[in-house]
Design a protein that fits this description.
4 strands; single chain; 4-stranded antiparallel beta sheet; alpha+beta; 6 helices
Length: about 180
């Protein structure tokens, strides 16, 4: 009988809580949730996952004839790199050096993007491409980009290519947004 009275008392006390108090609890919880969302980037970049993707992508790009540069880069970088590779060549759509600089000078650091060289490496031929080193250099939460200081090594030809590779995460996938070339 005492147990029944105890539970009845608890039930009565819990029912006496005003709806206003209940409303405040919900509002406070909603406010905290809103603050967290406003202070957190839309999607945090997983540097380990990005690093693994980039390492595998570089190796696959040079191991396979099926990898398309366009499928692993942003559309803007793809257009830029195609223009850079074809400067002053006698091919349809190629730009002169002057036209190339005028078109891209405000979007890319042209001093770190040589013309008439390939994608990711400057050599026309390659043997066994490996990623010798990859260090996270910068993470920009606002722009949703991550920059890796990357050393690409051709083991067969004993050549190293020093690069800063900028990735962006778009629609749940990583894409190469820029490749700064230091050699």
């Amino acid at each position: 009988m005492r147990t029944l009275l105890f539970f009845l008392s608890l039930t009565i006390l819990s029912c006496q809580q005003t709806p206003k108090s209940s409303f405040n609890l919900v509002s406070s919880s909603s406010l905290d949730s809103t603050l967290i969302k406003e202070n957190t980037p839309v999607s945090a970049i997983d540097t380990n996952k990005a690093k693994e993707w980039l390492r595998n992508t570089i190796i696959q790009f040079f191991d396979s004839n099926n990898t398309d540069m366009q499928s692993i880069t942003t559309s803007e970088y793809y257009e830029f790199k195609m223009d850079a590779m074809n400067v002053d060549l006698d091919v349809e759509g190629s730009l002169t050096e002057v036209a190339f600089k005028k078109k891209w000078k405000d979007k890319f650091n042209l001093q770190l993007h040589p013309t008439q060289v390939g994608f990711l490496i400057s050599g026309q031929d390659w043997g066994n491409i490996q990623v010798a080193e990859m260090i996270t250099k910068n993470v920009d939460a606002e722009k949703q980009t991550i920059t890796f200081k990357t050393l690409i090594r051709d083991e067969e030809f004993n050549v190293e290519y020093d690069r800063d590779i900028v990735l962006i995460e778009q629609d749940g996938q990583y894409l190469i947004k820029d490749v700064l070339e230091y050699d």
